[in-house]
Amino acid sequence: MTRLQTPPEGISQETLAGLVTEAVQQTLMQHGVLLDAQALVSASVLAGSVAAALPFLPPAQRHAIDSLKADWTALISAFFRTVPDRIASGNPMVSDQASGRAPPGAGRLQNIAERAAGLQSMLLEDWAGEVAGSTYLEEKLRIPRSTLHRWQRRGEVVALRKGGRKHVFPLAQFVDGRPVLGISDVLSAIANPRLAWFWLTRPAPELNGRVPIEMLREDKVADVVRAARTVS
User: Fold this and answer.
1) Residues 103 and 137 in one domain
2) Is the pTM of the predicted complex or chain greater than 0.90?
3) Which of 99, 133, 151, 217 could cross-link 157 (Cys pair, CB 3.0–4.6 Å)?
């Protein structure tokens, strides 16, 4: 949306906020920003609400905001440092959040975020299961490095970043030297590889408590993909 352009006719501020909220949440997960569940929801909803409010302001107010030359990050950080005091004083601007009423879009975002809340404080080996690098996979499973990297570029294999630029690959996703069918569909639905693997390796309520990766290894691809799209 270009500067000072009015919102498209027929879209409400709440609808626009919801769209931006979902986009921000996906971006945070894709870039590995592993907040706890509530922080992920709050960050996404706040970003959506702020971005959606601006197009609906009168032109004069938008001009004024646009002309403000400031460090927005510092300003916003300063504002949020005052939030606890605002809640304590009963400020109506934050009363809905303080009373526990979720902002628009929060319910859609909470599902997978809650299940991944523990990732931030856990070592990779503690939750991902057995993983290996490209050297091991080439020697033991006879998967050429070029093939592995091609799968990774195409989103056909779960690759988990470990350390700087190094990636490791969960071994449970391979059958007969290839990723099981359905991995690429799950990664399309849950774009962040860590979140996708976390979901794949835990009992899923959407699958009556079954573990998705075990079902993929049994060729129950359609059920798992459908469930992945539901949680995402």
Assistant:
1) no
2) no
3) 151
